[in-house]
Amino acid sequence: MSNTPFMTLERYIVDQERRHPEATGELSRLLSDLSIAAKIIARETTKAGLIEILGFSGSTNVHGESQKVLDLYAHDMLFKAMDHGGHLCVMASEEQEDIIHIPKQHRIGKYVLLFDPLDGSSNIDANVSIGTIFSIYTRISPDDGPGTLEDCLQPGYKQIAAGYVIYGSSTMLVYTTGSGVHGFTLDPSVGEFLLSHPNIKTPKKGRIYSINEGNYKYWHPGIKRYIKWLQEEDQKTSRPYSSRYIGSMVADIHRNLLYGGIFLYPGDSRNPQGKLRLMYECNPMAMIIEAAGGRASDGYKRILDIQPTSLHERAPIIIGSEEDVLMVEKFIAEADLNNED
Ligand code: P6P
Fold first, then answer.
1. How far apart are CA 286 and CA 289, in angstroms?
2. Alpha-carbon span 147 to 277, nearest angstrom
3. CA atoms within 13 A on the CB side of 128
């Protein structure tokens, strides 16, 4: 019998809040509202094949990517769940070009919410795990008016909370407020997220690497050498590693968080900034992995230290077990030192 206490997400959030006398309860209620949106999105994604909610919506997002019906559904569900709680001054979504103001009839709060409503959605029709990613900041603009773009363009180290929901063989919500990473599994029969993974710590070194090897010819020489190095045999360093790549960031990083390993979406000669979005994917995942004892960099500097300049900018990301990320940085530095092509 597991010794994990029987604990709902709501109860756990309140318990965590009680440890901070200065807490107002605002953040707790914000996280609780997010979990309601997650339950509704989970309900739709787990029956997507049955209710004609698959396929493309015919629209494209700010990145020129075709939007799936479920992408837009998840975006709308999050907006409707979060716009009236009185905790937020502004929101921003990976699926919407501009910041999202809180409707005038609702109270303005002190928090800022950024979210990727359904990451990995290109996999939806193939029934592959997908996820929602969220990131929470405290506003920096003057307290009285609506939130601003400036509130949304803060470096990742200023996040006060981050998390994701993975819609897979089960639905799990994983979040951190900076002290520990906690995982909750949805029990659909009672509609509650129950504590299943308290205080997740990621192994310092893994045996799994996740990267789209189809981009090999475009990679930095240091990345090329690193991946080839992983494939050599050496028992002392547990090589060769296993290659695991789902093509859904939340699923790949969730597995590596629990098992150990490294996920890489580097910049390359075609896309120097890589593919993943700094504000909606890289920063929240970086906060989580660091709180679990891992590391996240762009190959040169900490992801959380990047000062954003635009809402939808991309960043190269190398994230996971600390020793593995440090090794990639070493290969990159050596290749640069030797001016390798
Ligand atoms: P590629 C999904 O479209 C996504 O944004 C991430 O979830 C995933 O890690 C990445 O793109 C996959 O990209 O180029 O390997 O298909």
1. 5
2. 21
3. 17
> Which residues span the domain enclosing 236?
208-337
Residue whose CA is at the smallest distance from ligand 1 atom 5? 120
Say if residue 265 is in the same domain as residue 165: no
Same domain, 190 and 260: no
**Does residue 127 belong to any structural domain of this protein?**
yes
Q: How far is CA 164 from CA 12, 108, 158, 213, 326, in A?
A: 17, 24, 18, 25, 25
CATH code of 167's domain: 3.30.540.10
State in Å: Cα 192 to ligand 1 middle: 30
CATH assignment of the domain containing 232: 3.40.190.80
* pTM of the full structure: 0.94
Residues with CB under 6 A from ligand 1: 119-120, 122, 212, 247-249, 275
Look up tokens 């004892």; give the residue: 293
Q: Read off the amino acid at residue 314.
A: R
Q: What is the tens place of the pLDDT at every residue in 239-292?
A: 999 999 999 999 999 999 999 999 999 999 999 999 999 999 999 999 999 999
State the distance from the centre of ligand 1 to the C-alpha of 249, rounded, in angstroms.
6
Domain C-terminal end among 197, 227, 242: 197
